[in-house]
Amino acid sequence: MILSAVKGMSDLYGSRAIRWTKMEETIKKIVASSNFTEIRTPIVEELALFKRGVGESTDVVQKEMYDFLDKKGRHIAMRPEGTAGVARAFVEHGLGLNEPLPLKTFYIGPFFRYERPQKGRYRQFHQFGIEVFGDETPQIDAELIFTAMRVLTSFGIQAEVHVNSIGCQKCRADYREKLISYFSTKKEGLCEDCRNRLEINPLRLLDCKVCDPKTRCADIPKITECLCDDCRGHFEQLQRSLTIFGVPFVVDPFIVRGLDYYTKTAFEITAITGGSQNAVAGGGRYDNLIHDIGGAQMPATGFAMGLERLFDLIPEDFFELPQVSVGYALSEDAVDQLVAFAKNMAGQPLNFFADYKPKKLKKALQKADRVAAAFTFIIGEDEAKEHLILVKNMETGEQKTFAQNDIETILGFCR
Ligand code: ATP
Ligand code: MG
């Protein structure tokens, strides 16, 4: 029986792994340059954290959790998103008291959702995200959007920013009422989930991909018409700051985010190229989450970017793959010398590796072609007698013999 990976989860290897790592390194460099520091939290948390931190009524908690009982009967879940774990760590370690605020963090790693696998949607996927604590300003929200766009443009990706304000608990209560009365006459057109949502979390109707009221119904009330003075001022300043950061945006009053803890700013970034799964990042402000999970009242804001979707948007030839060079011994006697040569080449810029099993010249050159070696190094019988090595430039065909220990001259030839 051949075992295969769990459905919706995949292996990363070969040139894809090399490009993936380069993508992650680029992201880390960009965020480090704006003083975001990494935070790593466990892959699993107590299920209760996500119920409280993500929201009982969300699809993520109701349908998409990878959860299980551990050997002591604790109810554990694989993390479906990053914010709840980071917020838990923030509270648990008293970071609000011990670290200078605002605290600017980023994370990158795997997440798990039990969804129907399809292109751009997997059961193990990866996100890069940013969370900032202790800064209530609209300017930091704008900086996060700017940072997400810096990441995308660094890969040559064009994207569109959609912003909204979903208000605070006060203005959202008014909006809820308006939505409930608007949709109460339109229940027939709603899917079963949305009929339930109307009772518990009517804002989520605007997020539904099944009956999609957002595009089918006219004159749905807009939250932007219900904002209190504080929330409206915050939203206007956000837009001014985005303009100063040079980030074009459109106001989309129907962005709601799937998760319950958001307040004020909500945004989505969609790639202009790419298929149907083109929402590449989403985020917003969550001023109530830290308090909801047992901490002090603490403003917070963040976003998450889906790395599979990002990766698919990066042109295949965007990253240069590193070139390798390879060494062969043509006889058993030459192998020790090849070992010594490999030791001397370690850490040199040619990405040298030795293929220790002796082989005939023709076979060696065929193998060098298969790994697309830039330079091939050969120790044949004659070379071995005098501690020499033959170096062949595989592109030009030029070849020359050197003393095996004269690494400097060899590197000069290979430049
Ligand atoms: P969607 O509306 O596509 O289901 P979402 O609202 O569930 O997205 P978020 O929870 O905001 O997504 O996650 C942020 C980003 O993570 C998304 O924009 C997307 O790029 C990525 N993402 C979410 N779920 C998956 C998944 N199952 N597989 C791959 N990427 C995902
Ligand atoms: Mg989803």
Kindly describe this structure:
- Helix content is 36%, strand content 22%.
- It has 415 residues and is α+β, with helices and mostly antiparallel strands.
- It folds into two domains: 14-168 and 228-313, BirA Bifunctional Protein, domain 2 (2-Layer Sandwich); 325-414, Anticodon-binding domain (Rossmann fold), CATH 3.40.50.800.
- A hairpin with a 5-residue loop joins strand 15 and strand 16 (399-403).
- The two termini are 49 Å apart.
- The structure holds adenosine-5'-triphosphate (ATP) and magnesium ion (MG).
Shape: elongated
- Note the total helix count: 16
Low-confidence stretches: none
Total beta strands? 16
The level of helicity is 25-40%
> What class do helices, strands and sheet pairing give?
alpha+beta
Radius of gyration: 28 Å
The largest sheet is: 8 strands, mixed
CATH architecture of the largest domain: 2-Layer Sandwich
Strand adjacency order, main sheet: 1-5-6-11-10-9-7-8
The CATH superfamily name of the largest domain is Bira Bifunctional Protein, Domain 2
Q: Give the amount of beta strand, in percent.
A: 15-25%
The tally of domains stands at 2
In the CATH scheme, what's the topology name of the largest domain?
BirA Bifunctional Protein, domain 2
